[in-house]
C-alpha cells in the first residue's frame, strides 16, 4: 500500500535498521541486520491494515488482547462497544480483541530523526475513538534505535480531569533468523501464570511460574501472566542468535504466544492483564501526571 509511508530508522552504532509505518497504526514492521529479519512478518502489512492480522510490533490500545464482553463499566457508567465501528474488531470467536488502533491512520508525527520517530493521537479530537474509550487524552509513542536496541516509549497524558485506564500493550513477534524454531531456547522470569480457556479468555485460575530456560521445540503457548517483576528480561536464543525483550517500566503483565503454524514467538508487554478493562485490575493516568511505559528489544 504505497500511500502508507514507511520510515526507516538507522542505528548509529551498528548496521541494524527498523521500519515504522506511522499511518498504519505506528506499527514497527521490521527490525533487520542486513538480510536478517528479527520480526515475524506473518501475513504482512496489508493484512494488518485491512483485516487486523497482526505482524511485526503492533500496539494493542486501549486494551490488550481480548475482552470477555462488548461492554465495560467505570465509575458507574457503562461503555458499549460495537464491533465493526469505532475501530472495534473481533476474532474468529466474535470476541472483542486488540483495542481500536489496529492500522489506525490518524497518528501525527511530531518528531523525527535518523534513529527516532515520535507520533501522537489526541483522543479528545477523535469522536470515533472516544465512542469506544471515552477518556480524553493524548497518546504519544516514541520509537528509538540505538546500540542494537529498539526502544518503544508510550506516554498517556490526560487532557481533562478524567483519569485514563491503563490497559494497553504491544504484540511483538520475534524470530531468530536462520535458526530452526525447534532449537530456540526461551528464558523467562518468575511470575504468576493466568491460564486462558479455549477462546483465549482468563479462566480466573492462577499458579506460580518458576521461570528459567526451556527449549521451545514444538511447544505452543497462548498463556497470560501477571506479577511480572519490574525490569524483567525475557530472551529467545539459539545458535549464535539472541533476542532480549526487557520490560523496562510500566509493564506488570504479559502474554506468551507461540502458535503451532508459524516460527515466531510473541512476548507481549502489557500494562494490565487480559480482560482488565472489564475486571478493573488496572492503574490510571491521572490529570497532571502523565504515565510513561517503556520496553526494548535487543538483538544479536
From TrEMBL:
Highest taxon in the source lineage: Bacteria
Name of the protein this chain belongs to: Aldose 1-epimerase
GO biological process, one term: carbohydrate metabolic process
Any matching Pfam family: Aldose_epim
CDD domains: Aldose_epim (cd01081)
Gene Ontology terms for molecular function: carbohydrate binding; isomerase activity
Amino acid at each position: 500500500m504505497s500511500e502508507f509511508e514507511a520510515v526507516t530508522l538507522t542505528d548509529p552504532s551498528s548496521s541494524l535498521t527498523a521500519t515504522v509505518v506511522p499511518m498504519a497504526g505506528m506499527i514497527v514492521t521490521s527490525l533487520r541486520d542486513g538480510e536478517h529479519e528479527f520480526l515475524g512478518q506473518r501475513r504482512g502489512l496489508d493484512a494488518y491494515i485491512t483485516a487486523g492480522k497482526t505482524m511485526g510490533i503492533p500496539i494493542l490500545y486501549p486494551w490488550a488482547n481480548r475482552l470477555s464482553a462488548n461492554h465495560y463499566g467505570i465509575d458507574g457508567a457503562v461503555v458499549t462497544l460495537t464491533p465493526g465501528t469505532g475501530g472495534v474488531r473481533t476474532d474468529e470467536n466474535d470476541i472483542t480483541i486488540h483495542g481500536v488502533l489496529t492500522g489506525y491512520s490518524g497518528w501525527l508525527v511530531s518528531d523525527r530523526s535518523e534513529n527516532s520517530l515520535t507520533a501522537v493521537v489526541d483522543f479528545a479530537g477523535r469522536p470515533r475513538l472516544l465512542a469506544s474509550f471515552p477518556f480524553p487524552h493524548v497518546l504519544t509513542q516514541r520509537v528509538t534505535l540505538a546500540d542494537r536496541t529498539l526502544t518503544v516509549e508510550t506516554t498517556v497524558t490526560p487532557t481533562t480531569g478524567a483519569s485514563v485506564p491503563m490497559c494497553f500493550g504491544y504484540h511483538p513477534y520475534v524470530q531468530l533468523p536462520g535458526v530452526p524454531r525447534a532449537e530456540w531456547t526461551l528464558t523467562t522470569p518468575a511470575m504468576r501464570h493466568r491460564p486462558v480457556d479455549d477462546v483465549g479468555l482468563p479462566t480466573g485460575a492462577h499458579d506460580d511460574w518458576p521461570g528459567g530456560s526451556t527449549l521451545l521445540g514444538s511447544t505452543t503457548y497462548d498463556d497470560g501472566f501477571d506479577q511480572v517483576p519490574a525490569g524483567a528480561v525475557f530472551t529467545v536464543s539459539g545458535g549464535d542468535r539472541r533476542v532480549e525483550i526487557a520490560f523496562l517500566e510500566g509493564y506488570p503483565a504479559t502474554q506468551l504466544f507461540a502458535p503451532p503454524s508459524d516460527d515466531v514467538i510473541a512476548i507481549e508487554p502489557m500494562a494490565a492483564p487480559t480482560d482488565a478493562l472489564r475486571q478493573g485490575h488496572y492503574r490510571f493516568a491521572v490529570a497532571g501526571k502523565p504515565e510513561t511505559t517503556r520496553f526494548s528489544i535487543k538483538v544479536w
